[in-house]
Amino acid sequence: MTDVGLERWRLILGTPAGGCLGGLDGANSRRDAALDWLYGRDEELSRRDIRREGGSGPSQLTTVDWLDDITRLFPKETVERLQQDAVERYQIDDIVTDPGVLERIEPNPALLRAVLRTKHLMNPEVLRLARRLVEAVVRDLMRRLATEVQQSFSGARSRRASRFRQARDFDARRTLRANLGNYRPDERRVYVQTPYFASRTRRQLNQWQVILLVDQSGSMLSSVIHSAITAACLWGLPGVRTHLIAFDTEVVDLTSDVSDPVELLMKTQLGGGTDIARAVRYAAQLVEQPRRTIVAVVSDFFEGGSEAGLVRAVRELVEQGSIVLGLAALDENADPAYDRACAQRLADVGAWVGAMTPGELAGFVAERVGR
User: Fold this and answer.
1) Which candidate among 91, 252, 272, 291 keeps its CA 20 to 30 Å from the CA of 210?
2) Whose CA is closest to 350, among 312, 320, 313, 324?
3) Is the same domain home to 176 and 254?
4) What pLDDT is recorded for position 7?
5) Over the stretch 242-293, which tens digit does the pLDDT of each residue have?
6) Residues 123, 228 within the same domain
7) Where is each VWFA domain found (predicted)?
8) Hey, which residues does 214 pair with through a beta bridge?
9) Residue 282 covered by a domain
């Protein structure tokens, strides 16, 4: 088979398509075997009586062999997707619990989530290797998020002109006003002879408390990761004092570990029930100046405790002047999945409810702190 398009369809459809599209040889045959090792176990195929059988068959590949094969046979983006499906869709836990596998694997966010789900299964040697994976992914996320946070907290533009010409400081209003004499009606254009730029001044910041309450239930894993990293990025910024509280049916204050998000994540215990009201009551005890406090509850709002108690606790925070954010997601995609009825009740008593990326949360905090 030499047609690239047909080869791709044959790889997607597996052996059942061989009668129409022909067979595979060489590297494509090995790719087919690697795909079958993973996707051949899909229960939906059995239900529909479809047999997706690769050239080598799943029994001839170990997890280590499979990882070596996909790394050699597929581009990096495809390798990450295959690894993600292996750990999240098919729960192939030895990808993150086998030392031989961990030594070969390329760190990525999907594997970080898998490590946090399975770390309780790991012996000390495997946990040491897994921690290196966590550190690599967290370092990359920190690098990207820290830039967004710093931009949110950068100085505000003043009205004074600046000698330094930077695109971010371009003063469009003043430039347009000063160059109106160069407007040409027939062309409907203003020709700029003299551009103007504004200088920046540092914001005069008053001290605010930011209290992040993070639901540890398994469905909130991505938000747990990004909450830890967001807290670390906010830690030490002028005008902000950050607290990080994790909760299920218990409440654990992790503020002492905020500066080390790797250690913090390795301490999280995913799963269990959910008592959001208890966490909100704990946060209320930390509030020092209500009108300079933001309480961000990161949860899916499926309350396992008293929903009436949760609504009451949020109402009390709002009435004393605190800002309460109900975040159904805090991650790079901000895709919410939550109990809308409970969230609506919290909105009705004055909470801001929605979903944010970490950068949007940082921008929200910076806007309030800079007032």
Assistant:
1) 272
2) 324
3) no
4) 62
5) 999 999 989 999 999 888 889 888 888 777 788 999 999 999 999 999 999 9
6) no
7) 207-366
8) 246, 298
9) yes
